[in-house]
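Morning. Coffee machine broken again, so started the prediction first thing and wrote up yesterday's gels while waiting. Chain of 166 residues, entered below exactly as on the submission form.
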Amino acid sequence: MRRGRVVPFTPARRGRPSKLPGVLRGWLLPLVGAIVVGIAAGVFAGVQLAPRDCSVAMIERVIDGDTIVITVGGASDRLRLLGVDTPELGAGARCAAEQAGAARARDRLRALIAAAADRQICPDGRDKYGRILAKLLLDDTDAAEILIRERLGRPYFGGRRTSWCG
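Came back before lunch.
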């Protein structure tokens, strides 16, 4: 059996040949795409789009830094803030530092809610305890992000939580 030279398959070109060098042709589309994305990012920088299905929050009370009681259709229901874990209060606290941190987080959330002119709840299902899972937007800012930024809470998206003690 005779072995010949292998020639890669190249489809026949139709139309006018490109006047752009091969290297430039390979980079042109990604470059244009990056410019468009950059312009869009610059135009929309700092713009917060509110999630859909948000409603005005009727907040009855704050239980701790990540749990509140709201009124929905005349009935009270517990709401767990999405995206944040704060220390536990009372019997849930494992040490004095956690108890103190929990009181600070609770008090800060109370102050944030009291100062907000606009309170929006954006629900996203329920947790294993039956609480509503939701973002709480206070004047278009996520309350969970404020608590995390002020180091009163940690980012949390489910699973095992780490200890606040030591």
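The chain is about 30% helix and 25% strand. Going to sketch it on the whiteboard this afternoon.
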